[in-house]
Write a structure and sequence with these properties.
By secondary structure, this protein is mainly α. 88% of the residues lie in helices and 0% in strands.
Amino acid sequence: MNMKIAAVGASAIAVHGVATLFDKNKGSLTNRSEAAKEHFKNDLIFGAQVGAVGIAAKVLNKTKAGKVIATGFGKFAGKLLNGISHLVKKSSSNIVEKFLKNPTKAGATVIGTTLGLNLLYAIYKFANNKGKIDQKYDDAAKIESTTKNVILDDDKNASNLIAGEISA
């Protein structure tokens, strides 16, 4: 199952870069290749972050070391919550008791939640960077197109000027 997810992710990275390379809205081949390069880097970083979260979740869930880490973290979190429980309502004492009764499960829950939040942040950052990259290279393509038109128009006017045919 995990290999299928990795294969889908890798092909999504490749397809996105290739699609950018053939996108005619990105202007010249140089501009498109730069956009594809930036998208590839963004996709690669995102893939690495998602992979790291997946590996951490697998280690946490399936190995002895993961259970030891979860237990230690659960005990720490239980003590921390016990120390601040007097600041919150009585209902928080039930949470503290649950943490102290089963620190492995509590630690795994806290670490899992942290991993989930990390994954959500990675998705947000990926999408935000993707939009910035698209905008940057779309703007560069528009400037390229405008500059090309201005230069071509100036060349036409220059040749007409030489021929004495300019009408102001």
